[in-house]
Design brief:
By secondary structure, the protein is an alpha/beta fold. It has twelve helices and 14 strands. The strands form two sheets. The chain has a nine-stranded mixed beta sheet with strand order 13-12-11-10-6-9-8-7-14. α5 packs antiparallel against α12 and α9 crosses α12. The chain binds nicotinamide-adenine-dinucleotide (NAD).
């Protein structure tokens, strides 16, 4: 059979005007190796149709629900190779399961699902069916985060002794005291336990801290002690979390959606016995590295001092900022390479398949549950 060089994909969620679905589409387009050919972009028919037509999807492949989409795409000879799931949290599990059962590779937004058991079930199905399953933890897609991982692995900052990470936003500040009509409109599903799960802020952005730190350092939280603040809402808008890793080292994660003046302030600081590393997502093309007793150095994306995976992932020359969409493109680059290799019966270099997968998604769900339980128990230490 002739080798394939392009993939076909479908999307569930991501109607026109939705947030992250459009980012996924633009990121995949940057890679120039996959075509959007099917979708169920909204559970509302009109929105779904409008979006499908806007992207030139054939009428027979704009589906009224994801179940029909999974079934019909499975039956087609030219069916989709993978699906992007970009719907609110409550639906990820059932949608991912339907596509896995149809034998279709999955890229799903975080948090992966509501319960650890659901996540483990998805992990098991993907494993049994040998399907690729990406969980799109955005920040691990950045080249400079990959470079940080490489420096840490090489021992450039010595043994890790402390982690200090924050993700501060202010877009839900008007929700303090129970919310008002204006912002509630924007955030309606995120602050609704039925659609968001047991946590808003930790699920939405705290999981990004957990995943980015784990990716950079290999350190997973073993125990957490946390205080969540809801300020009159059903779910948390602010969280301060003490973390103990498997090796006994401690760290602090702080995430919030009510910090005036902070927009998308993810900052990761890793401290080692020989130095430190700091990455700031609002200035993502740079990495600050300090070796003990030396002046601080700033590494620039796309220059000769960058090595490894990070050196391979430049879309545009250094000095031109690469941001969020490029980070997603890097995730898709790795995921789509694995999907394509599988289809073509090839085994590529495992290092090229550098994306966060379903097991990282399960870890995120465990983290959310432990943090919420700890807060409910008055900041007691809880095993993750
Ligand atoms: N990785 C990241 O950095 C990042 C950033 C933003 C959002 N997210 C995640 O992406 C997901 C979506 O968030 P968003 O901000 O884009 O939400 P959104 O509300 O802007 O968009 C959700 C979309 O899903 C559609 N939808 C809802 N239920 C559906 C169903 N049953 N079938 C088909 N379509 C359905 C809606 O019509 C809408 O188009 C969430 O899980 C969120 O946590 C991740």
């Amino acid at each position: 059979m002739e080798k394939r060089s392009r993939l076909r994909y479908g999307m569930v969620g991501g109607s026109l005007g939705a947030f992250i679905g459009g980012v996924h589409r633009r990121a995949i387009a940057l890679e120039e190796t996959a075509d959007l050919v099917a979708g169920c972009f909204s559970s509302q028919n009109e929105k779904n149709q409008k979006t499908g037509q806007f992207y030139g999807i054939g009428q027979d492949r704009i589906y009224k629900n994801y179940q029909e989409m999974a079934q019909k795409e499975k039956e087609r000879e030219d069916g989709i190779d993978f699906v992007c799931i970009v719907t609110p949290n409550a639906t990820h599990y059932e949608i991912a399961k339907a596509f896995l059962e149809a034998g279709i590779h999955v890229a799903c937004e975080k948090p992966l699902c509501f319960t650890v058991e659901e996540g483990q079930e998805l992990e098991q199905i993907a494993k049994e069916k040998k399907l690729c399953f990406a969980v799109t933890y955005t920040y691990t897609g950045y080249g400079m985060v990959k470079f940080a991982k490489e420096l840490i692995e090489k021992g450039e900052i010595g043994q890790i002794v402390n982690v200090n990470a924050e993700y501060l936003q202010d877009w839900l500040i008007d929700e303090i005291g129970g919310g008002d009509q204006t912002t509630t409109k924007m955030s309606v599903w995120r602050t609704d336990p039925e659609k968001s799960g047991i946590s808003n802020c930790v699920g939405d952005i705290g999981t990004h801290i957990e995943d980015t730190v784990a990716y950079m350092t290999g350190l997973h939280p073993k125990k957490v002690a946390a205080v969540l603040d809801c300020y009159g809402m059903d779910l948390d808008l602010n969280a301060n979390i003490l973390v103990e890793y498997e090796n006994g080292v401690h760290g602090v994660y702080s995430c919030s959606q009510v910090c005036a003046g902070h927009l998308n302030g993810l900052v990761i600081r890793i401290f080692g016995s020989e130095g430190s590393i700091e990455w700031v997502q609002e200035d993502p093309n740079y990495l600050k590295v300090t070796r003990k007793g030396q002046p601080t150095q700033i590494y620039n994306r796309g220059t000769g001092c960058i090595t490894g995976m990070a050196a391979k992932l430049n879309h545009i020359p250094s000095g031109h900022p690469e941001g969020l969409t490029y980070a997603f493109a890097n995730i898709y680059h790795a995921f789509m390479q694995e999907v394509l290799d599988q289809i073509n019966g090839e085994t590529g270099d495992g290092q090229d398949y550098d994306y966060q997968d379903v097991s990282d998604g399960v870890m995120g769900v465990k983290f959310i549950h432990a943090v919420v339980e700890s807060s409910q128990k008055g900041a007691a230490w809880v095993e993750v």
